[in-house]
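In the laboratory, one determines a bound structure by crystallizing the protein with its ligand and collecting diffraction data. In a computational setting the workflow is compressed into a single prediction: the sequence and the ligand go in, and a structural description comes out. We illustrate the idea with zinc ion.
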Amino acid sequence: MDLAAGNGASPRPLAEIASYHAHIYFDGPDQRAIAAWIRERVAERFPVQLGRWHDVAVGPHHRPMYQIAFAVEIFPRLLPWLMLNRQGLSVLVHPNTDSPYDDHLRHALWLGERLALNGAVLPRTLKDGEALIDPVAVNTAPTLEA
Ligand code: ZN
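The predicted complex, in structure-token form:
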């Protein structure tokens, strides 16, 4: 992406976004309990892919967290739900395009405190045909209205 692109440049189309991630961060047992509460309620209400718990920092993340992967059409319902229910936890929401680096560091939004990320481990671009971001594999069976 050329950040200097200005007048005359075409905007990037929404079709570049394959899916989204929400990373739910927690620090200590009290926040972990909140994160577990959020996880259970999300599972009951949204068709998403809940990632495994990371109780130690992994990848670009400096704080324990788990990931929620979700399809583009889930965004307008899951995001406001997280706004209302995050209970002080930091949440990173980022699109998945062909640049994991830009996705996390330039195109992300944060709910709550913005945390540092280690961009050095994130690829700037994906090679042609490389599928770094797997398609969302829904592993919840929601039965409740959000
Ligand atoms: Zn992510």
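The chain is about 25% helix and 15% strand. Keep in mind that any predicted model is a hypothesis to be tested, not a measurement.
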